[in-house]
Amino acid sequence: MYYFGIRIHQNREYLYVTQNPSVVQSANAVFNADWNNRKAPAFAHRVLVLSPGTSASQLLEVIDQPGPIDVESEELGPYAVILDALAAKGRDLRLILPANINHVGQRDVAFLRQHGCQVRLMPVKPIYQHSKMIVGGSLAFIGSENFTQASLEDNREMGLLLNGSSIGKLQAQFNRDWARAGRHG
To answer: Is there a cis peptide before residue 68, judged by omega within 30 degrees of 0?
Structure first.
């Protein structure tokens, strides 16, 4: 069962509900490892986009897929690995960030625009852009990972790679958000 593009306390979030035993077992194993101050088991890294550990390479897989990609994030960087991959997409990248990004975020936006990337800033009201999502033609990502070095290499963050019918649902919500962000500059 899927729920996408929901509003939680006036935030844009993406929620994925599943009974897939691999995903459920992996998420439970990560919780238990964290609770007991241990490393997450290796099998969880194969099922989940999990940081620290494997998330940057999995996000690059989604970014580097052929064709256009759409991205929503609360934060960007500075993290050259992700920024350079996004910049390489040029006009094939549409990115939405919240309008209240800091000076580092503004610098990252200028860098991406210099590479032809399309960037829009979502007003913080009525819906604050808090979600983290990448969607392309065949692969997508949703999760808690901001596209920053701290989030991808230091913090405990978790997400999923998705395909199939999830692609269309994520794309539809992104298009609604893109239109909303476009009305505000």
So the answer is: no
CATH number at residue 172: 3.30.870.10
Q: pLDDT in tens for each of the 185 residues of the chain?
A: 344 555 556 788 788 888 888 889 989 999 999 999 998 898 988 888 888 877 788 889 999 999 999 999 988 877 888 999 999 999 999 999 988 888 888 999 999 999 999 999 988 787 787 888 999 999 999 998 888 888 888 888 899 988 888 899 999 999 998 998 875 54
Strand partners, 128: 11
- Using alpha carbons only, give the angle 14, 138, 164 rounded to the nearest 5 degrees: 65
Residue 100 contacts residue 130 (beta carbons within 8 Å): no
Q: What is the CA radius of gyration of the chain?
A: 16
Domain count, the chain: 1
The parent domain of residue 7 ranges over 2-182
Whole-number Cα distances in Å, 66 to 83, 138, 164: 17, 9, 16
What pTM value is reported for the model? 0.88
